[in-house]
Amino acid sequence: MPINDLNQQLVNETTLTTVRATLQQVIADMQSAAQNSNLTPDERKRYGSINEQNKLLVNKVNDYATDHPSFRSPDVNWDDYQKHLSLRNHLAAIEKALEQIDEMCSDIRITYDYSLYQNALVDYDYTKYRAGSTASGAGFHSKYEDIKQLFGNPTGIKNIKQDTTNKPTE
After folding, report:
1. Exposed/middle/buried for residue 127 (C-beta within 10 Å: 0-12, 13-18, 19+)
2. How far apart are alpha carbons 142 and 131 in whole angstroms?
3. Residue 131 and residue 9: Cα distance in Å, rounded?
4. Residues with Cβ < 8 Å from 145, sequence gap 6 or more?
5. Exposed e or buried b for every residue in 21-46, given b needs 16+ CB within 10 A?
6. Which of 39, 51, 74, 82 is the least crowded, having the fewest Cβ atoms under 10 Å away?
7. How far is it, in rounded angstroms, from Cα 41 to Cα 30?
């Protein structure tokens, strides 16, 4: 018998319920800040995200502002600059953590998907076997007919009527 269950250690449903509730609370907490920052697709394109080189610029300017206050431009609100930089760094850390959670959830879900699909194939093979038996009754035949349409045409041959209207003339 093949190994159909890649993930032998099931995720605890209580853990998943707790994680979902926590994420819903995070969404609720972030809602007010996000309302003021919801960007349209055009605005997202226009403002974009600063690239790595520009992040170096932002950090270098911050270093100079911190280490050499006399070099600061009087046209910049440095308190806001510091707050924005700190908040930006927090948000980047949250995004990184969410990416890790996303990858973990995706990996676990993929193993469950694989297991479910493999076991569905085993059940389908059993259904095919039972549907072909005279003693199986109509239940297995109905199930087989219902499920087999999900597999498409296994031979790859299309049932196309020959078009005689555009035959080349000899």
Report:
1. buried
2. 8
3. 34
4. 131
5. eeeeeeeeeeeeeeeeeeeeeeeeee
6. 74
7. 20
159 DSSP 8-state letter: -
Cβ(125)–Cβ(145) under 8 Å?
A: no
Q: What is the three-class DSSP state of 123? A: helix
What is the tens place of the pLDDT at every residue in 50-61?
Answer: 888 999 999 999
pLDDT digits (tens, 9 = 90+) for 129-170: 999 887 767 789 999 999 999 987 766 666 555 444 555 554
Q: What single-letter DSSP state applies at residue 69?
A: G
- 135-169 CB burial, b ≥16 within 10 A, e <16: eeeeebeebbeeeeeeeeeeeeeeeeeeeeeeeee
